[in-house]
Amino acid sequence: MIEILLSWHTIRIRFFRVSLLSALLLAVGSMAAVITGSAMSAEKPEASIADSSHTASKVAEDLNQAIRSGDVERLRSLLAEDVLIFESGNVESSLAEYESHHMQSDIAFMSGMNIVLISRQVIDSGDMATVVSQSRIQGTYKENEIDLTNTETLVLKKLAGQWKIVHIHWSSR
Predict the structure, then answer these.
(1) Among 3, 18, 33, which Cα is nearest to 170's?
(2) Cβ contact 147:138 at 8 Å
(3) CA–CA separation, 51 vs 36, rounded Å?
(4) CATH level 3 topology of 2-172
(5) How big, in percent rounded to 5, are the helix, strand and coil portions of the chain?
(6) What are the residue ranges of helices labelled H in the chain?
(7) H/E element, 2
(8) What are phi and psi of 147, to 5 degrees?
(9) 64, 115 in Cβ contact below 8 A?
(10) Which of 26, 30, 91, 144 lies most in the core, judged by the most C-beta atoms within 10 Å?
(11) In the 8-state DSSP scheme, what is residue 49?
(12) Neighbours of 21 (CB within 10 A)
């Protein structure tokens, strides 16, 4: 178990089959979500998009565009080999696992959706960055009308001079 003590908050995280680096990256993303929680309220669709010119923000946009367009090569270039992906209670612990499980269904789902970015915050820590976004997803998938509010936390690390996504957490309601 990893325990992170802040002067006002204690976060305890348990990990099974997850590397220490991944645990730390998740902790950074969790802290970012706590810190920026007020900016992520679904009651504020007019919220401004912060840091849209930051390189990490552009990587987040590239990720979403690559999924929507089905650009698998671009997805591979954005994700680290050991990317840790949390989605709907499932965990994929590598790019290879994501490719063999949910990548194609994510592409099929997102290709028919209209996505409106509500807010985006970037927390830059030098060679690491956390991007916390909220968006509205609407469309039709398999003859079902979809209308979701989605939250996305991306943790990026600068590897060989290039930002790579090392952790993704997607959640929607």
Answers:
(1) 33
(2) yes
(3) 13
(4) Nuclear Transport Factor 2; Chain: A, (3.10.450)
(5) 35, 45, 25
(6) 20-35, 55-69, 72-78, 95-100, 103-111
(7) strand 2-5
(8) -150, 100
(9) yes
(10) 26
(11) B
(12) 13
DSSP state of 160: T
- pTM here is 0.72
Residue 136 tokens, joined: 């509205």
> Which residues 6+ apart lie within 8 Å of 43 measured at CB?
none
102, amino acid identity: H
- How far apart are the C-alpha atoms of 149 and 115, rounded to whole Å? 10
CB 84 within 8 A of CB 166: yes
Contacting residues for 34 by C-beta, under 8 A, at least 6 apart:
9
Handedness of CA 36, 117, 151, 82 (dihedral sign): negative
Written as tens digits, the pLDDT of the chain (173 aa) is 444 444 333 343 334 344 444 444 444 454 444 444 444 443 333 333 465 788 999 999 999 999 999 999 999 999 999 999 999 889 999 999 999 999 999 999 999 999 999 999 999 999 999 999 999 999 999 999 999 999 999 999 999 999 999 999 999 99
Q: How many residues can be counted in the chain?
A: 173
